[in-house]
Amino acid sequence: MTRKMLIALVCVFTFSVSFAQKDLSYLDNEKGTSMEPILAAAKPLVEEIEGGDYEIVRMEYDLIFSEKSTYRTLFEGWTYGIAAFGDYRIKDIDVSVYVKSRGNWKLIEEDAENDDVATVSIKPRIKEEYKIVISVYKFNKGYSVGHYGLMIFHE
Fold first, then answer.
1. Could you tell me how many helices (H) and strands (E) the chain has, helices first?
2. 37: which DSSP letter?
3. Which among 32, 34, 70, 80 has most CB atoms closer than 10 A?
4. pLDDT score of 114
5. 85: burial class by Cβ within 10 Å (0-12, 13-18, 19+)?
6. Residue 58 half-sphere exposure, CB side, CA atoms within 13 Å?
7. Residues 70-81, mean pLDDT to the nearest whole number
8. CA 113, CA 84: separation in Å to the nearest integer?
9. Domains of the chain with CATH codes
10. 9 pLDDT more than 70
């Protein structure tokens, strides 16, 4: 991991610690189906990442009950940061990154810390497809579903 990417991930993590205290549930609708809370959570993360001279190359939002997988081809010559975050219903979210090895997915990096933002850094040796698994380890009391956001960015 380059020094620059390490600084970006530390900034994202620091942001998440300070942002974790904010409750954006007031942005949701009566049914609890609005994307507004997760979009509001994403806005300062986007500003933090892009303010550090990084380019976001993928953003994804979806419902999550326990775990979701997504795939992305990453290229050699770049260092990528991957950040997963949850809305007000998610207390602890994790991200794991796998690469295919001999026909099986092999874990190469993960962030399983106890917080509502998970970040990892990947520097591919060659162009390869990666599997990114977003997991909710714990929901806030009274919830069993929420929205997650995923951002992939590079220097």
1. 2, 8
2. H
3. 80
4. 83
5. buried
6. 15
7. 95
8. 12
9. 3-154 (2.60.120.380)
10. no
